[in-house]
Amino acid sequence: MTRADARRTAIVARARARGSVRVTELAGMFDVSEMTVRRDIDLLVADGVLDRVYGGASIPGGPTRADEPGFETKLQREEQEKIAIAREALAMVRPGSAIGLSAGTTTWHLASALAERLDCTVITNSVRIASVLFPAATGGHGHVLLTGGERTPSDALVGPIATGSLGRLHLDVLFLGVHGMDPDFGFTTPNLLEAETNRAFIRAARRVAVLADHTKWGTVGMTTIADLGEPEVVITDDGMPAEARRELAEHVRELRIAPLG
């Protein structure tokens, strides 16, 4: 097997494991140019192994995904990018404010950073996030409220109880984690009930900030949470391709790029 053949085999394996792959990510992984990766993808698309999507490729049948990875699986992905995004988001939290943290691994990293200086009220539908913040709250600093609801594989609490508890709340800022973001389909998730709960979160917030690393671009979950231009802020990492940055900047009021390191 040639080096090129081994690289294409690895590309297909990664696409099958994750649902989609990004050109920029693969170029860095294999230490080759983006043009080389695009040629690899062209060959795999011609063979019917992959489908081409914006900025990369997906498994055949399109990028839409209905499967929902577990929390621990997602926590291991793009960890440094998520930590950088969390640091950037932390600057938006004001003392005494009421903020929402939707379930997700990037919002979990924000909660971990916030636990060191909890001086606000946090409403979340994530058991994992609440567990991180409760020790800080019991020390007399800030407050943590956990919605009820049905638990998903990603440890989100969803359904009528969750959406009902959010209906009478008023949040200064919502930090929203998403499964994917796409210029045509907006911000998405594979879980229908989680989408409904996240929309209730959005309705309760004066300002919405989406936290999403660069691998989320071009990924489409089964249902849309919000259109691309609905949130006021998107915070992502500096691995986001230039074309995607331009697309996001055209839709959202503020695009923040979190540098790694």
Automatic annotation (TrEMBL):
Tree of life domain: Bacteria
UniProt keyword terms in alphabetical order: Transcription, Transcription regulation
Q: What is this protein called?
A: DeoR/GlpR transcriptional regulator
MF GO annotations:
DNA-binding transcription factor activity
The chain positions of domain HTH deoR-type read: 4-59
Species the sequence originates in: Gryllotalpicola protaetiae
Task: Supply the PROSITE patterns for this chain.
Answer: HTH_DEOR_2 (PS51000)
